Amino acid sequence: MQFMKVAEILSSPQGAKVRTRGWVYRRRDLGGKVFVVVRDSTGIVQFVFGPDSPGYKDAARVTVESSVIAGGTVKDDPRAPGGKEVVGEEFRIVGLAENFPIRRDVSKEFLLDVRHLAVRSRRMTAVLKIRDTVFSAVHEYFRSNGYYEVQAPMFISAAVEGGATLFPVKYVDGSTVYLTQSSQFYLEALIYSLEKVYTIAPSFRAEKSRTRRHLTEFWHAEAEVAWAGLEDILRVEEELISFVVERVLERNREELALLNRNLEPLKNVVPPFPRISYDKAIELLQSKGLQVRWGDDLGADEERALTEFFDKPFFLYGFPEQVKAFYHKNDPSRPEVTLSADLLAPEGYGEIIGGGERIDKAEELVEKIKRFGLNPDDYKWYIDLRRYGTVPHAGFGLGMDRLVMWIAGLDHIVDAVAFPRTVARTYP
Ligand code: NSS
What is the pairing mode between strands 33-40 and 17-30? Predict the structure, then answer.
């Protein structure tokens, strides 16, 4: 008999003969019977073996997380998970598990040490299914809106987002290169042929701070569009985020329920998103008693305070020149601020996207590179792009792990990734 997925068993009628393969989620011995809950990628289902049923012997000695083959006859039982139980007729151990180290009382730190095993939990499985939807929806959005998918190198020679978070790597020829912080500059080079491009790739930041929302390696969805301005790119961002949330609400109700995610804030995620200027944000924060001054960068605390004014994602625009990277175009009508915007997720989450209009004149770019204390020689090819048929253009970068963290309603970014990389962790 063929193997069925657990989800199929749970939708089979009473009396159906079923057979599956998976892992032992739980075993209980009660009243002379053995109850074995088997899980696979689709869910969990309970098998019950009496002393006379074939397979009883193996069922009685099986350990948690052993891989098994189990079969029997479906019986409705409101007390069993999913409302069905399988009266066992076959049970075989494929790989007997040693004493599984993960138990209810273990610490968060220990769970991260055994992440290679912890990824099997129902919670982590739910997050990874949501993450899968998020990644596929981002691809789907870009592909159905005329973007080409491109790939940029991970080894680079100069900072995109400032020297403080660069990761040096000793290269094969003995020179020092860096891990990329963003694919943006390469995307900018590619708009001259493809006009609308995107990529989903890792970015690396040597973030020394331990926060709930910083990884040293994160997944970055970036887009760049020729002939586009700030207004155009903000529209893309709000459409993209709304589309992704819609897809998760369509496909992942079960997983969101398992994570106890409140759906109301997610149902609110439809365009247009509200906007608040940096100037106004500073005033608001000051009126709430926060110690910020115009010109300061806003950190997690300030962003969290701002999210209290909104019940959906919102744009924070018009950042001062000094808090945004050198490539941002300054507002011609107000040169002390840039044509940039961050998108902040509600419910305290804060920044998930950074983007804006890029400088498209070579002289202006060289001048700003110098003003920022950087060396134009390090950005030779990037400046070149402005010398051969320059166009106005804009783009953005979306932190995929932060997006998953918010959509799934998680407390910490490490919970949004299977194998997180942080200041404190590169194992397993
Ligand atoms: O530094 S960003 O704000 N912007 C850029 O890197 C631009 N070069 C992107 C572009 O315009 N093509 O980072 C973009 C987003 C940010 O909003 C976060 O959501 C995410 O990338 N991000 C991170 N996520 C997790 N961990 C860390 N350390 C991190 N840094 C940025």
Answer: antiparallel
3-state helix, strand, coil in the chain (%, to 5): 35, 30, 40
* Same-domain status, 259 and 381: yes
Whether residues 59 and 118 fall in one domain: no
Looking at the domain assignment, is residue 348 inside a domain?
yes
Given a contact cutoff of 8 angstroms between Cβ atoms, the answer to whether 223 and 186 are in contact is no
Pocket of ligand 1 (CB under 6 A): 160-161, 182, 184, 205, 207, 214-215, 218, 220, 222, 351-355, 395-397, 399, 401-402
Contact 347, 316 (CB under 8 A): no
Instruction: Decide if 70 is inside a domain.
Output: yes
CA 172 to ligand 1 center in whole angstroms: 28
For 271-291, the pLDDT digits (tens) are 999 999 999 999 999 999 999
Prediction pTM value:
0.98
**Does 421 map to a domain?**
no
Asked whether residue 182 falls in the same domain as residue 40, the answer is no
CA of 399 to the centre of ligand 1 (A): 6
Tell me what pLDDT residue 22 has: 98
Structural domain contains residue 277: yes
Instruction: Looking at the structure, tell me whether residues 190 and 85 fall in a common domain.
Output: no
Q: How far is the CA of 183 from the centre of ligand 1 (A)?
A: 10
